[in-house]
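Give me structure tokens for this 195-residue protein.
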Amino acid sequence: MNCLIFDDHPLVCVAIKSLVESSSHISQVNVASELKAANEFVRKSNIDLLILDVNLNDCDGFDFYRRIRAHGFKGRVIFYSAETSAYYSEMAFKVGAHGYVCKSEHYNVLKDAIEAIVKGYSFFKEMNDPKSTVQTLKLSAREATVAKLLLKGMTNKDAAEFLSISDKTVSTYKRRMLTKYSVDSIVELSRVIEL
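Here you go.
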């Protein structure tokens, strides 16, 4: 897996790079401390995992992610920030990121986030929204997609057609999500999670 770390503080980049290189899932780690370099890496290097700060000197991390997604970026994303407010975690979740870590956390939290995300899960440790779970969210990317469609009111059949998968597959994802959140229906699921 090819990783890019984007932070406008070179020392932070080096520290995170050292941590990321210890993961057996990561084969190459690139660092960028300026917007131009980050854009080049994303355009030319087939980045599988992007780890970036929310607050950057030459751009907003969320805006950067929105732009590269609009241009076809398909990799996974972990945001981090010095802000302890759950607002940033919720924002990262809403823009479609796969994880959020606060800089004041122990470094093992970032390692845990990487491990969860490379296995297809999301990692949002702190979120204030009462509809969000307090513990780490553990929905796979496909489960989250199915949940969004079902919470919008689509039937299993509609969601299956939209995603070009079988009704049975949608039912399997739905059953898994209901089990994970210990609820009996999509209506109950909508009360404990917001996508």
